[in-house]
Amino acid sequence: MAVVPVGRGPVGSRHHPVRQNRRVPVHLITEPGDERIADYRALTDVELRTRWEPPHGLFIAEGELVLRRALRAGYPARSFLVDAKRVDQLADLDTGDAPVYAATPDVLREATGFHVHRGVLASFRRKPLPTAAEVLATAGRVVILEDVNNHTNLGAIFRAVAGLGVDAVLLSPTCADPLYRRSVRVSMGEVFAVPYAKLEPWPTALADVRAAGFTVLAMTPAPDAVPIQRLDPAQRSRAALLLGAEGAGLTGAAMAASDARVVIPMRRGVDSLNVAAATAVACWELGRDDPL
User: Region 146-175: what's the mean pLDDT?
Assistant: First the structure.
């Protein structure tokens, strides 16, 4: 095992070949199959990662901004894996007991399955999810997702929710994992800032949302749906926006369990928006009169 010594000269000098976090040695990885970086193996294989990450209680953060947000949100780090030329980006972090591994871009690519152009990865331990009841108890508005299994859309939805004043996200059991690497990256780490929970059993648990004082608003392009800008103040104040998967939309059972069907009026013959875009528009509309 190669360990880069802590140095005190300028980066690249013979006294300090690699600047690093002074609390934790940097372990050089020269083989992509090294078991110490097993957490990062085949990151582009969605099926494999889905089978590996949740059962092992971990997730992967990509990029310095995202991993810093994960640390601030209180997620414990298991390890860090960085391009050897970028170790100095972590020099100010308290990495705790988590080892910092460094490798060349070629080794990173072979281990992870893609070119790690951001140069920084980290493996984190998951935290226990709250229950839906706990999330609803402290929320004013929520977004509820049914069967949204595209990680890019899911990450974009979390970013919109965080930025547009919605308090939480509830997920049907068939939704994608918000902590999958692509979701985390697209959300820019906002998945760490937005409380979320599974809503089960589906869709009967929508009755629990209603019992908590929310109005369940099913988003649909149906021509007889209520234009979202015409909702009354009571419907807006405690809204639970319900959205379905890209293309398929909401199931009939979910639609039947809602209080009202709501549409974003469209122009020029376009029937609907991407689910992430629709979420952003609807969240902005419901909160447009909120105090800033």
Answer: 97
